[in-house]
Amino acid sequence: MHDQQLSHAMKKAIDQRLSGLEGDPWLARRIINAEKGEPPRMKKKLTVSLVFILIFTLLTLGAAAALVHSRIADHLYGNEASVPEEVLSQIQAPQQTAATPLGSITLDELYYDGNALHTIISIVNPTGETLLYTLDGFLINGQGASGSNLFSEGPGSYGWLLGGAVKDKALPITGSYYEKWQQVAAIDENGKFLGWDNIPGGKISLKILMDVWRPLNAPQLVNYKDFEGYDVNILMNCLVTDERGECNLELFRPENARRNYTLGQSGGVAYESVFEELGWAERLDTIEMTLEVDLDQMMISRAVPEQKEYLLNGHRIAFDSFELTHAGGSLEGRIYGDRNSVYPFLEKGLVLVDLEGDRELSNGCIWSNEINPDGSIPFTILLSPIAVNLPETVYLAQPVAYNDQYVEGYPHFDPAVKKPENIIGTWELNLNQMLEIKLHMEK
Amino acid sequence: MSNVKGPDVALEKEQALEEMVNLYQHTLLKMCYLHLKDRALAEDAVQETFLKAYRSMDSFRQESSIKTWLIKIALNTCRDMNRSGWLRFMDRKYTPDMLPEASIPFEEKDEELVLAVMQLPIKLREVMLLHYYQDLSTVEISHLLGLAQSSVSGRLKRGREKLRTLLERREPHA
């Protein structure tokens, strides 16, 4: 078969046989919403951690003060066997509770890794009736943090239907969830959203607002997998929950019910009338918790490089910031040279590796098309959390080729085949052209 | 470092994203499906691809086409997913009834070709899909995968041979 024939045959076969893969008409909108702070919906990943809801009892809630086992660590390290003691020791367990007769919220765990604030919050419904709890605000120094604000622009986010029974199935009366707050909203004096900014370090004031709603029509219990489309709100004129009590309001909020509001206004207030019109729920209460936190106290050791200019493949490189911690980190640098040679160089990618530990440390490299005043081109390398000891020497390298046959668990992995020295993780590297970077620890 | 952006820039980015999604979502979804062999994962990969593209739109320099850029992000995303623990426990045997239901008529040979492509080793499958399905030249593929052109040509040659063998095996014996 000629190339052209094969190309035609393959296109026809794939496009016709896989014509059932139709895509998501709301994809762009959901991505935009995700960037505004609402987590995108992921359908299948082991990271239940990212989507969450761990059901647990009041007994374990009471015993959680001693952080023998941290759920935040679970989210950072997943299935890793070990969790760095340093991280574990810095995760705070404020155990601060705020309550009204309609519910209580407790900040179980809190951790700041230098970039993001990780939280575990639990909710308890003491009333015996079925109530809906939605996070209406997570404010750092009065500014809304990313991921917060249930009713931010566009559809999205979650609520928790707790207590009572739906379709003869008892719903849990407590729920807890993990969230990672990475940035805070910058707003003008009129409350208009301007964009996102970094979380300030040091002492901050944290305010958590949880709205409480009473369902108006009898809620329904469904399997979300049966409703991958977005028309379930037409089929069901009521709140719908899964068996864990989680309400994906993104699925059930009609587009035409969207309300415009400013960040200075509570989303719960803005959507109160919408929920009533839909016959879903009436707003009863807001549970409010405020606490002072010193983020700097939670800082852990970080490995930083010697401050000097480095040379890789003829390109001069300087680091503006370079922080490698047990919780991840990032490397921001500048690369000098003619853009016609620098951009192709960057396009090949840059990976940070620990040769001794035989592992990749980075999980992405991005760069900017805006050139610095000194003519250099800025780039950023994102670093993954490390469960084991931080390395004393790391190497910045360009991958020669992708090679995953030596990665355990991959289909072509054969434990009997010895891995060549120049394969680190999934990358085949040119060991003769790598940048050696000595690190020292700072707190 | 502040990353606060003005509302006009944000709106332009949103419009650009919508256009990209409209133009390339379907072809990327099929490519990711053939890479990951799982519909839900492929949908996640496409979502992740556009999310990454949206985030790094400012650094896209238009030296490659948007399509090539998106394919590169999608491939990296699929590779990351392939490395995840979840896939380690997946049954990798694939039969016709496991393919998603088609929404338009197809011939039996189309199904056979799709299944044969899915059986190709991942390295060969990648270059075969990029060249014959996405119409990328060997030069573009070499840039995209960070491989020498000779390696790309070699993989294409081996891919064609392997595909022919797989299709011959599937043909009923007289």
Descriptive report:
The complex is a heterodimer of chains A (443) and B (174). By secondary structure, chain A is an alpha+beta fold. Chain A has 2 domains: 27-297, no CATH class; 301-442. Chain A is 17% helix and 39% strand. Chain A contains 10 helices and 27 strands. In chain A, strands 4, 5, 6, 12, 15 and 16 form a 6-stranded antiparallel sheet that branches. In chain A, strands 17, 21, 22, 25, 26 and 27 form a 6-stranded antiparallel sheet that branches. In chain A, strands 18-19-20-24-23 form a 5-stranded antiparallel sheet, with helices on one face. In chain A, a hairpin with a 2-residue loop joins strand 7 and strand 8 (169-170). The longest helix of chain A is centred in the N-terminal third of the chain and has 15 residues, at 3-17. Chain A is globular. Chain B has 2 domains: 1-92, Rna Polymerase Sigma Factor, Chain: A, CATH 1.10.1740.10; 93-174, Orthogonal Bundle (Arc Repressor Mutant, subunit A), CATH 1.10.10.10. The N and C termini of chain B lie far apart (70 Å). Chain B has 174 residues and is mainly α. The model of chain B is unreliable at 1-5 and 85-93 (pLDDT under 50). Chain B has 8 helices and no strands. The longest helix of chain B is centred in the N-terminal third of the chain and has 30 residues, at 7-36. Chain B has helices spanning 7-36, 39-55, 66-83, 85-88, 108-119, 122-133, 138-145, 149-170. Classes of the chains: A alpha+beta (443), B mainly alpha (174). At the A-B interface, helix 1, helix 2, strand 11, strand 23 and strand 25 of A face helix 1, helix 2, helix 3, helix 4 and helix 5 of B.
